[in-house]
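Hi all, posting the design record for the shared folder.

TITLE: backbone redesign
STEP: 1 of 1
STRUCTURE INPUT:
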């Protein structure tokens, strides 16, 4: 018995569509390769390491232990960015007073900065900031025994109230703009301020809703009475210099992927943010 062979013909309109799709894909691929060949991402991949600036003084987002090891939700964010780029990560110390200068330094000190960095219009005027990946807002830490005393900015903004902040960041800026009567004390080591408040060397610390819970959970002498009612609202993002648009696009895509695949939520849950 003879086999009957039929010849399947692709409809002309469908063939034209396939050709157009292939052409568009080719053009897109070529344009991406051209951009990346001259961009920051290619430089990082060829180097095999991404250099990330971080202050290391902001539990539980970015903290540097005495032995030089880093931990925190933003540290793991940085490591995830590196993993998805297929490179290793090297952390470079920076500080809140020098953060902007370090991002803009020549020669470049690091590729991007991460670690509790709030997205602001002022930063976006001179630098690039990624999409947000963690909600944030200003709040306070005080002694648990005095929690009911500090339930508003007006209650804090009195000459006898000693408000301690770290220098050069948005905490100091917020205090200077909103507490015109309180006694503001600028202290260089952010990670030591909660303990100083607990010991009575200051009354209130201006901080973030991302930082306050960790200290309250780890020191029963402390409280954050306005944790659920922050003075403002914002988001934390990744900071980098202008001209690195390919890196910004890559970081934003990784943030979107981490939101979509549940990686970011698991990370937030690990550190008590979700």
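Okay, here is what came back for every position:
SEQUENCE:
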């Amino acid at each position: 018995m003879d086999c009957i062979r039929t010849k399947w013909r692709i409809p002309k309109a469908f063939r034209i569509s396939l050709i157009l799709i292939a052409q568009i894909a080719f053009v897109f691929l070529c344009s991406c390769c051209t951009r990346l060949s001259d961009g920051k991402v290619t430089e990082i991949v060829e180097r095999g390491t991404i250099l990330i600036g971080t202050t290391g003084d902001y539990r539980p987002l970015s903290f540097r232990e005495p032995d030089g090891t880093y931990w925190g939700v933003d540290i793991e964010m940085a490591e995830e960015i590196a993993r998805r780029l297929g490179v290793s990560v090297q952390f470079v110390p920076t500080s809140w007073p020098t953060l902007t200068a370090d991002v803009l330094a020549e020669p470049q000190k690091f590729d991007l900065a991460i670690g509790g960095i709030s997205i602001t219009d002022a930063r976006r005027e001179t630098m690039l900031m990624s999409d947000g990946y963690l909600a944030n807002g200003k709040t306070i830490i005080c002694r648990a025994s005095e929690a009911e005393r500090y339930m508003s900015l007006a209650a804090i903004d009195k000459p006898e109230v000693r408000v301690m902040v770290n220098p050069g960041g948005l905490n100091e800026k917020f205090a200077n703009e909103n507490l015109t009567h309180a006694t503001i004390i600028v202290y260089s080591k952010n990670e030591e301020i909660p303990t100083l408040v607990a010991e009575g060397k200051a009354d209130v610390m201006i901080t973030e809703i991302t930082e306050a819970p960790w200290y309250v959970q780890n020191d029963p002498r402390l409280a954050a009475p306005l944790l659920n009612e922050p003075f403002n609202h914002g988001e934390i993002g990744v900071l980098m210099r202008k001209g690195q648009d390919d890196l910004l696009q890559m970081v934003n895509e990784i943030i979107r992927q981490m939101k979509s695949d549940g990686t970011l939520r698991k990370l937030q849950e690990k550190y008590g943010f979700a």
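COMMENT: Residues 166 and 188 are 5 Å apart (CA to CA).
Let me know if anyone wants the other runs.
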